[in-house]
Design goal:
The protein has one domain: TIM Barrel (Alpha-Beta Barrel). Helices cover about 45% and strands about 10% of the residues. It contains 16 helices and 10 strands. The strands form 2 sheets. An 8-stranded parallel sheet has the order 3-10-9-8-7-6-5-4. A two-stranded antiparallel sheet has the order 1-2.
């Protein structure tokens, strides 16, 4: 077993253990993948001020996200098909998040259902909602979230239509994978994954099968998504969701100051500055580049979070210093679950937390809540 010291180590191990189509699904962006790469690269441009001779005892990274206590300002992002990275992947990731002390967000497009998560964890979790054409199905899904004791609903706004991701089309992405010659050859090299999948009954979209019309034919995930997701989604629909839900509402996919203001007007308890991990509008700025202007515009009116490109605790600290009151990690979690299941996700969280804690100390702070942009060098 290799020594795991950073998120890249988990990525390398996941690439070896996860079937090609599912590894590529998580580790890719749309079109040229320029925005996908910028999300990560732009963090490296931000430089930290090192301070010395400061008492570094009794450090804490604890804070809150939408009123929920968190060990660090990180939540697990909603990632579709996590249960295809590793058998029962969403359950394992939720258990790791609960053990560590941060929130877990379940995707609408998960393999394990929200009922599966509720049955296997005690902590409240969050649910990410995609707006579909079938409003009755949407209303039923929101009711199921209440029964499953979800403590926040995250409505994703940037997937009314789906960006073209070349690898998914070339791999013929389906869940479960179709028994083509290429797939069979690839699966033969992933015995650990195959044995895990043989031991679970969860092989398709647990939140949708039996709940949404037309979900039975998933022969082309992209085609089904384009057909089912509602391109008409607009701000009155956001108000409808808020009314149906009645609890904490997080709006994800905000990249523009005007949209941030509209999100606040719609009653968002938090907004996520996010370009969908570079999987939608290729050519959009990175999330960390878009963050400061949005914080300046609405940071005093709602919690501003961000996701996209976070691969370390240093990235979390930089986002916090630029005004994000929370961050979401998707790929770092996916690499963990693909590499080592629940232990891999827990390892990813431990790595990020240690990097955050130590870097905060090097910057002269012992309490994250006192950290601001003064820890950054002028750009």
């Amino acid at each position: 077993m290799p020594v795991i010291t950073n998120i890249e180590d988990l990525r390398v191990l996941a690439e070896k253990r996860v079937p090609r189509m599912f590894y590529d699904y998580a580790d890719s962006g749309s079109w040229t993948e320029g925005t996908y790469r910028a999300n990560e690269a732009d963090f490296h441009k931000i430089k930290l001020r090192q301070r010395v001779a400061v008492n570094m005892d009794n450090r804490t990274t604890a804070t809150t996200m939408v009123g929920q206590a968190v060990k660090m300002p990180v939540a697990i992002a909603p990632v579709g098909l996590t249960g295809m990275q590793h058998a029962d992947g969403e359950i394992l990731a939720a258990k790791a998040a609960e053990a560590f002390g941060i929130p877990f967000t379940l995707s609408t497009m998960s393999i394990c259902s929200m009922e599966d998560i509720a049955a296997n964890t005690k902590a409240p979790f969050w649910f990410q909602l995609y707006m579909m054409r079938d409003r009755d199905a949407m209303a039923r899904m929101i009711e199921r979230c209440k029964v499953a004791r979800c403590s926040a609903l995250m409505l994703t706004l940037d997937l009314q239509v789906i960006g073209q991701r070349h690898k998914d089309l070339k791999n013929g992405l389906t869940a479960p994978p179709r028994p083509t010659l290429a797939n069979i050859i690839n699966l033969m090299t992933k015995p650990r994954w195959c044995m895990g999948m043989a031991g679970t009954k969860r092989h398709s979209f647990g939140n949708l099968v039996g709940h949404v019309k037309g979900v039975s034919d998933m022969s082309s995930l992209a085609a089904w998504t384009n057909e089912q997701f509602d391109p008409r989604l607009s701000w009155p629909d956001v108000e409808w969701v808020k009314e149906q839900w009645g609890g904490k509402l997080v709006l994800k996919g905000i990249m523009d100051v005007e949209d941030a203001k509209l999100a606040v007007a719609a009653g968002a308890d938090a907004i996520v500055v996010s370009n969908h991990g570079g999987r939608q509008l290729d050519g959009a700025p990175s999330s960390i580049e878009a963050l400061p202007a949005i914080v300046d515009a609405v940071g005093s009116q709602t919690e501003v979070w961000m996701d996209g490109g976070i691969r370390s605790g240093q990235d979390v600290l930089k986002a916090w210093a630029l005004g994000a009151r929370g961050t979401l990690i998707g790929r770092a979690m996916v690499y963990g679950v693909g590499a080592m299941g629940e232990a891999g996700v827990l390892k990813a969280l431990q790595i990020i937390h240690k990097e955050l804690d130590v870097t905060m100390a090097f910057c002269g702070h012992t309490d994250l809540r006192n950290v601001d942009s003064r820890i950054l060098l002028p750009r």
